Amino acid sequence: MPQQIHDIGRRRAWAIWLVALAVYLLAVFHRSSLGVAGLIAADRFDIEATQLSLFTVLQLLVYAGMQVPVGVLLDRYGSRAMLLAGLVFMTAAQVAFAFSESFPTAVLARAVLGAGDAMVFISVIRLVGAWFLVRQAPLVTQLTGQVGQVGAIIAAAPLSWALHELGWTAAFGLASTVGVVLMVAVALVVKDSPYAASGITPVKLRALARSVQTVWGNPGTRLGMWSHFTPQFSPTVFAMLWGFPFLVRGQGLSTGAASTLLMLMTGWVIISGLVLSWLVTRLPLYRSWIVIGVVGLIATTWTVVLLRDTAAPMWLLVVLVLATATGGPASMVGFDLARSFTPLESLGRANGLVNIGGFAASLMTMALVGIVLDLRQPGGMNAYDLDDFRAALCVQYLFWTIGVVQILRYRHRGLAHLRRVHPGAVESMKRGEPFVHPGFSDREGV
After folding, report:
1. What are the Cα distances from residue 53, in Å, to 58, 104, 168, 361, 363?
2. What does the alpha-carbon distance between residue 145 and residue 136 come to, in Å, rounded to a whole number?
3. What region holds the Major facilitator superfamily (MFS) profile domain (predicted)?
4. 199 vs 64, 84, 91, 442, CA distance in Å?
5. For the domain that residue 233 is a member of, what is the CATH number?
6. Which of 407, 433, 46 is nearest to 230 (CA)?
């Protein structure tokens, strides 16, 4: 048993988490900064809407594609090193973006930004697993995801002001300097583990890469991935791309009213995240059922809205955005599930695989909605009407159905795995006691 040299879940843990959270907040800010600068970017690079969307799509593709290799590197080098690497990548990318004069250079900068962004979130989640008590982890995990999102929206206001007052290069250059400050904070404050041994596996990269297959063989990893996949894509697609056009072009709202509803979504994730973390902590055996319940709520609300052949009343749209927003906190349960099935030394790989789920679903849904809209109405964004959006947004049901089936499938396999490998774990969770993985070899998952 490694020697514990720092308290778990106490003052030092919170200090480390706050610094890591600041890095995640910055990552989300960089990720979403083009939403504020989109129109200016279109003028600066003389591009159309399709090319503008390439910035976001490529950035998310790189982010999702990097999750497995980043998970491998995370288990080899630890959260501190990966947070520092992520900050270096993001800072360099924003500096390059600030001075970009051509579209190809700017696209390359956003791709590098996506690579740096990919290193941050699962590094923070690994720190949560190492530094907090098992009863604290669900709440801290929820706070990590939701505070990061809210902070990015708050931070967008200064960037919008800077773009108009200082100009493109000065605004993005100034934003990049925050990364340098956080590099110093991470280097001084963050430690990988409260134990004398760091919790980092001193294994060659080739062996770690091969072990991804082993971690993937654990049904808990797949249960976590599908629990992230199924509730996360709807709020992501709505907030990042299709929600605003649906509300304005499909529902006839003013741009101000549509923006207010999107801001309401962001506020609701805090409240719903706290409720879900409370439920997950007290009902550990039913975490996957909680996810399915949230997905059912989202799908039911969308069904009521999409069955209408006229615009929905405002109260129903408020219910829609609140129900949809709950999918964000629900997707965080996937990381808590993976943590129950995975020893700490393999958690980076498991979290990387889990994190692929929601982003893969979001990219596929964004693309399919756009394809359906183009097939129905080739006239472009200004020609879309309510019927076009009703048809296009029905593609969500495909992914909800696939996801729920897979959650049920791997819930059954996961419980069988725990009964076989960890006798008494299921009975413990039935009593409302969280299961703490004893740190056995991850080969147990095959």
Report:
1. 9, 14, 19, 17, 12
2. 15
3. 16-421
4. 25, 18, 28, 14
5. 1.20.1250.20
6. 407
**Same-domain status, 425 and 295:** yes
- State the DSSP code for 198: -
User: Which of 33-37, 115-119, 254-258 is the most confident on average?
Assistant: 115-119
| Residue type for position 6 | H
For residue 265, what are its two tokens? 């979504």
Q: 150 and 234 share a domain?
A: no
Burial profile 419-440: b = 16 or more Cβ within 10 angstroms, e = fewer: eeebeebbebbeeeebbebeee
What distances in angstroms separate CA 193 from CA 10, 15, 126, 354, 356, one per listed residue?
13, 13, 10, 22, 25
Q: Give me the residues paired with residue 4 across strands.
A: 195
Left, alpha or beta for 47 (phi > 0: left; psi -120 to 50: alpha)?
A: beta
Q: Does 330 reside within a domain?
A: yes
The two three-digit tokens of residue 257, written as one number: 């009213």
Query: 189-226, pLDDT tens digit by residue?
Result: 999 888 766 556 555 656 666 667 778 888 989 999 99
139 shares a domain with 13: yes
What is the chain's Cα-based Rg? 22
Q: Which of 160, 192, 224 is the last residue of a domain?
A: 192
Structural domain of 11: 1-192
